[in-house]
Amino acid sequence: MLRVFETLPQPYLILSPALYMLTASNVYLQLTNKTRVGIEEQYLFDVFPKIPDWSSEEGGIALSLSKVLETLQPHQLPVMRFDIPVFDDQQRLEERYWKTSHTPVLDAEGEICYIIHHTEDVTRQVLAERALKDSLDKETQAAATAERLRRQIEKLFAEIPAQIAIVTGPDMVYEFINPRYKTELFPNREVLGKPLLYALPEVAGQPIWDILQHVYKTGETIAGNEINIPLADEPGGPVKEHYFNYVYQAVRNDDGEITSVLSFKYEITDLVLAQKRLEQNEAELLALNYGLANAHEEVQASNEELQSANEELHTTNEELFRAQQNIQLLNDELEERVQQRNIELFNAQAEAARERDRLKRFFMQVPTGICVLDGPEMVFELVNPSYQQLFPGRDILRKPIKEALPELNGTPIIDILKSVYYTGNTFEGKELLVPLARKAGGTIEDRYFNFIYQARYDAEGVVDGILVFVFELTETVLTRQKEKENEQRFRFLLNAMPQQVWTARPDGSLDYVNEVVCDDFGQSMDQILGRSLQEFIHPDDRQLSSKRWKAALQSGTEFMVEFRLKFHDEQYVWHLARALPLVENGQIRLWLGTNTNIEIQKNNEQKKDEFLSIASHELKTPLTSIKAFNQLMQRTADPQKLGNFVQKSASHVLRLEKLINDLLDVTRINAGKIEYTMEPFNFLEMLKDSIESVQQATTSHRIILEKADDVTYTGDRFRLEQVVNNLLSNAIKYSPEGEKVLVNCSVHADGSIIVSVEDFGIGIEEKNLMRLFDRYYRVDNTAMRFEGLGLGLFISAEILKRHNGSFWIESTPGKGSTFFFRLIPETLTKTVPIADSDTHYQDDTITIKLNQQHKRLDVDWIGFQNLESVQHGCLKMQDMLIKNNVSKVLNSNIHVLGNWSEASDWGNTEWFPDMEKAGLRYFAWVHSPSVFSQLSARKSIYTLKGKLAIEFFTDIKSAEEWIESK
Questions:
Q1: Are 557 and 919 in contact (CB under 8 A)?
Q2: Measured between alpha carbons, how far apart are the two ends of the chain, in Å?
Q3: pLDDT higher than 70, residue 673
Q4: 536-to-372, 541, 593, 649 alpha-carbon distances in Å
Q5: CB of 14 closer than 8 Å to CB of 21
Q6: What is the model's pLDDT at position 698?
Q7: Is the pLDDT of residue 641 over 60?
């Protein structure tokens, strides 16, 4: 059987109850790079040292083994990281993640004889999840880039110095017009959303309508110059002639079907009219010249008649004089008209030059790449900055395309350009792959473009160049390809996870569930998404679940709750639901949630509570018999034989009785049935009695009462004596090398009683302090060395809370711990403000001042704090922040005493979000020397998200330097 076990195709390790390794499967030895000889009969933690993450109290190997030894039940750990040496380099560690379980093997008497340790390498799964997160981050960046490009294109259409419109369908319905189209053509008309003939009835029967219909039906791009379109300024108004240079181009959908027509034109009415006036003036000038020639002929005839008829000389001279005057007037008028014609011609030429400059500026400013290729050699005649950016550092202007971009030689691009040049047909490419280098001599990359090649015509209508409009889409195309791959990988990973996984929209509605959900509920994804998850939750759990889900949706914080889900077999199973929002640019994009099956944990917890109740009653019954037996032994006549046995028996009786009382107290606390007798008593007397009682039971330590104020307190003396006894017993237990325990009791200035118990033992690490008062909790490094069920501090904490008291710990690992608790008398008076104005507030617990010079609030917390005092001071701070319109707070906890952890959750979920709404942006927090206070402060901001900047400091000066730099 041993040989069969060692050849199993899974990593297994056999441990003894004392955690010595007996043997392992070959797969396990291969995974851990160990040999069977190197591990057999070796203590587990001598071969595998306790790396913190691997043996932590929250899920480590040591805790799991202790649970198996304690409960005799299997235990499974969550996934954890434990790096192992590289096979060929034992000094170098390789990152690895493991899923581990421990199963006890019981003998015939029900005792553990072996423990089977099974581990599974899940490194690939963990690394895949990490890669998925990185992929989602890249996806977010790509979406932001696409949005930026969309805004640039919208800005281009809004600012372009031309009239642009898009008409859709056979009725040519106006879908889009840019601002120039509106302001320059129809300032008094509303055309958007209307058919063209309805919006502009005057174009019916005009050539423009036939041109648009031709483009829509054939997809052919039509360009023209000086087209006359009669238009009215307003409906029913007089029609005026308007002349345009235009381009009409079909717009196609993804399937290549024509859906719309793009109209791109700019008005040249003034230029055309100027040209017509020039032509008219030239005709009039020719007519005048013709009249002048006739007049000269008449003069010659008159001279001949003068020579032949002297008698008509006088009359003829007078007629000649009048004719000369008319000629002079005609010449003057002719010169004036010629001068006017020259002026009009000059103005027309200037207007044409301005139009050319305007069009050139448009090409140079538009964010789309534009260039002009001249002649059959396709020389770059014009290149705008956007086109040049496609080839940074490359000198392409005034060079043939084959020389400027040699990598295009032999590609279809050159053939396409030649076709456009010799046929005049426009070519449009969408997401076309073009191999191009960005820099001269650089690496050729696969780049994707949208572009249009359009023929340019000279005055005779002959093609003399090509207009190129290009827009690079490489990043968008590659991102879309990666998104498709990532989506497939994402769904595979989610379906591979053993938990229920779901995603929801920002409003909370489900939009995806993995196959585990479908299998558990026995329904398809479509059936589940059409319903609410609430339908599967146990009726008793729906109210709490709905309340927390609504709170998470409103605050954008983590959602976590336990509930029972109804499976396809009609059985309800406990699950832990947890969801986190994916936030982009301050907005929730989606929720990613998991439902983890915790049925086993719930059953174990229930069984543990049942065990405590049963054990309490079962162990109390023989207690009387044990005491009676000890009494009989103490009366025996032979004390030399029985003395030592009697003493040990009595010690076990006391230990058993304490265990029973602790178990009963926990049961009463859980049921809310623990009773308290509140009456006045001498606190100093109670303290001395407790010290004396514990001192009699130990000879290893001296319990020293250093200082104690005499005070009368109203409370349950027996329960408070139980607290003191527990603290003293723990101090002795966890300081095995120590020799003394110091006790102090003082009455604070506010009337509260402060008790401290100091030992010089093993100490407690900071990460364990906040959980030390939880039920059954024991610090991992003490679990194997000291007996007990971890109930004492839990019971003590509950007793102190019932007395409206608080507790805290100061500890240094390896040097010792000091346990404090504080009791507040009922006669303690409420805080009365010493100063209360909009710029200065002060009472016995807090001082708040407006720092006018630096535009901030300076806050100093004083003395002991609790939930009531913290809430009062924080709300006063919020009121002053609003009234003084400041956004900075310098918050000092240097003078804070004790523990105020009960206010941490309120600060995190309510106060800090309200302060952000009130205008808070920067919060400098100076720590209290108390570790407990520091932990409470960090807990107050644990889940905060938003615009708040919060930093912690250990001194005022550093805090001031930071907040003034903001």
A1: no
A2: 71
A3: no
A4: 66, 10, 16, 56
A5: yes
A6: 84
A7: no
Round to whole Å and give the CA distance between 893 and 940.
Answer: 14
**Count of CB atoms situated within 10 Å of the CB of 357:** 10
Evaluate whether 287 touches 334 at the Cβ level (below 8 Å): no
| CB of 12 closer than 8 Å to CB of 118 | yes
Strands 20-24, 12-15: pairing is: antiparallel
∠ Cα 663 667 672 (to 5°): 145
DSSP assignment of 10-43 equals: S-EEEE-TT-EEEEE-HHHHHHHT--HHHHTTEE
pLDDT digits (tens, 9 = 90+) for 577-631: 999 998 888 888 888 889 998 888 887 677 566 556 555 645 554 565 566 556 6
In tens, the pLDDT along 45-69 reads 888 776 544 444 445 788 888 889 9
Whole-number Cα distances in Å, 442 to 380, 396, 405, 437, 843: 21, 15, 12, 5, 72
Pinpoint the alpha helices (H) of 261-411.
269-308, 313-365, 385-388, 401-404
Average pLDDT over residues 878-887: 93
Residues 463 and 419 sit within 8 Å (Cβ to Cβ): no
The pLDDT-based confidence of 376 (bands split at 50, 70, 90) is very high
> Residues of 674-701 as b/e, b for ≥16 C-beta within 10 angstroms?
beeeeeebebbebbeebbeebbeeeeeb
Label residue 458 exposed, middle or buried (CB < 10 Å: 0-12, 13-18, 19+): exposed
Distances (CA, A) of 406 to 94, 414, 417, 472: 49, 11, 15, 19
Say whether pLDDT at 935 is over 80. no
Amino acid at 148: R
Whole-prediction pTM? 0.38
- Tokens representing 654 are 């006391």
Distance CA 472, CA 428 (A): 14
pLDDT band at 143 (very low <50, low <70, confident <90, very high): low
Kindly calculate the radius of gyration of the chain based on its CA atoms and give it in whole angstroms: 47
Q: Contact 470/456 with Cβ under 8 angstroms? A: no
Helical axes 717-733 vs 792-802, angle rounded to 10°:
150
Mean pLDDT score, 521-545 = 85
Q: Which residue has the tokens 């890249």?
A: 138
Tokens of residue 704, six digits: 């020293």
| Of residues 180, 166, 179, 169, the one with CA closest to residue 262 | 166
Residue with tokens 């057999």: 40
Over residues 416-444, the pLDDT tens digits come to 999 999 999 999 988 888 888 888 888 88
Residue type at 85?
P
Question: Mean pLDDT throughout 749-776?
Answer: 75
Contact of 793 with 764, CB cutoff 8 Å: no
Mean pLDDT for the chain? 80
pLDDT of 778 above 50: no
User: Where does residue 59 fall: left (phi above 0), alpha (psi -120 to 50 degrees), or beta otherwise?
Assistant: left
CA 933/CA 808 separation, integer angstroms: 9
Name residues whose C-beta falls within 8 Å of residue 920's C-beta, 6 or more positions apart in sequence: 881, 887, 888, 889, 912, 948
DSSP 770-835: TTTTSTT---HHHHTTS-S-S-HHHHHHHHHHHTT-EEEEEEETTTEEEEEEEE--TTPPPP--SE
Residue 272 binned pLDDT confidence (cut-offs 50, 70, 90)? confident
Long-range interactions of 604-611: CB distance < 8 A, separation 24+? 604/71, 604/73, 608/71, 608/776, 609/667, 609/670
DSSP 742: E
The percentage of residues in the chain with a pLDDT greater than 70, rounded to a whole number, is 78
Phi, psi of 794 (to 5 degrees): -65, -45
Quote the pLDDT of residue 240. 83
789-808 burial, b if ≥16 CB within 10 A, otherwise e? bbbbbbbbbbbbeebebbbb
Mean pLDDT of the region 106-133? 85
